[in-house]
Amino acid sequence: MWKKNITHISEFILVGFPTSPWLQVLLFLLFFITYLFVLLENLVIIFTVWVTGSLHKPMYYFLGTMSFLEVWYISVTVPKMLAGFLLRPNIITFLGCMIQLYFFISLACTECMLLAAMAYDRYVAICWPLRYPVMMTTGFCVQLIISSWVSGFTICMVKVYFISQVAFCGNNILNHIFCDVSPILKLACMGFSVAEMIDFVLAIIILVSPFSVTVISYVLIVSTILHIPSATGQRKAFSTCASHLAVVVVFYTAVIFIYVRPRAIASFNSNKLISVIYAVFTPMLNPIIYCLRNKEVKGAIRKTMANGGAPFFRGSLC
């Protein structure tokens, strides 16, 4: 019976946010301005880290890499989302959907790994300050960055392959703003159990493992900070990792809410709102958090802008 109803899906229709035409235009302007702002602020950070010699340290290599990732992360979903506000129906081919899904979750998983690497960097800096130059060399930093990208994109290749093999029964209306795991599996009528199991197992590897490293690092960091005799020393030590901790909390809160049980989320309207947070607004907040909490980065950006390195960026950040 199921085999007779199976239909080859060649394209999906992205529902997006179904509202009145004038509100669609308003949403387009909001997300377009946000998209440009995210690109601007992350490019400022990348440029500043690149040209400022005092920022050529592991901590800022990670920050520059994170900004580079955020540029691609938001560019995978937002341009198609913007088209959906003005074009009806918003159609994406099956292949295009799988490509968008692959790059989106690969970049998200890479960010998990980078956040763990940054947590380890802060652990070494606070718990082993005298050994930091030896333990966190430039070469080791580059190895952590490359391994983060390779592991994220390799593991997600397996995830997307099994998701692309599920069978659909004629319904190609994707009740979401972009191609994501939950709405795609919601449409499947056969083969989704295997895809969900693979997705869950690989999520344990690519999400829980780096999250565990991050948590353990901060447990050791807090323990070390509490043993610092002076309150001034404690505040100074905590300030070096406060921005990273804030980014970790925002990122994992959204990701865990969405991906703990992909098929069990009943309210797709709330699903869309959470997706907007981690797909659009988190990349916007991350550079602001790092900039506001890090005087060295803030000072380097102001100095770079004042020297005319990028006049059109001046005053746009911090």
Relevant CATH superfamily: Rhodopsin 7-helix transmembrane proteins
What's the helical proportion of residues? over 70%
**How many β-strand runs?**
5
Order of helices and strands: HEHHEHHHEEHEHHHH
Secondary structural class = mainly alpha
User: Average pLDDT across residues?
Assistant: 82
Please report which band the strand proportion falls in: under 5%, 5-15%, 15-25%, 25-35%, 35-45% or over 45%: under 5%
* Widest beta sheet: strand line-up: 2-1-4
Main sheet: strands, sense, barrel? 3 strands, mixed
Please state the second-level CATH architecture: Up-down Bundle
What is the domain total for the residues? 1
Highest CATH level, the class: Mainly Alpha
Please mark out the parts with pLDDT under 50 across 5 or more consecutive residues, or reply none: 261-266, 310-316
Distance between the termini: 61 Å
User: So how many helices?
Assistant: 11
CATH topology name: Rhopdopsin 7-helix transmembrane proteins
Gyration radius, in Å: 21 Å
- Global geometry: globular
Keywords:
single chain; 318 residues; mainly alpha; Rhopdopsin 7-helix transmembrane proteins; 3-stranded mixed sheet; two-stranded antiparallel ribbon; 5 strands; globular; disordered C terminus
Layout of helices and strands:
Blueprint: H1 2-5, E1 11-14, H2 21-51, H3 58-86, E2 90-93, H4 94-127, H5 132-135, H6 138-164, E3 167-168, E4 173-174, H7 181-187, E5 188-190, H8 192-226, H9 231-259, H10 268-293, H11 295-306
Parallel strand pairs: 1-4
Antiparallel strand pairs: 1-2, 3-5
Helix pairs in contact: 2-3, 2-10, 2-11, 3-4, 3-6, 3-10, 4-6, 4-8, 4-9, 6-8, 8-9, 9-10
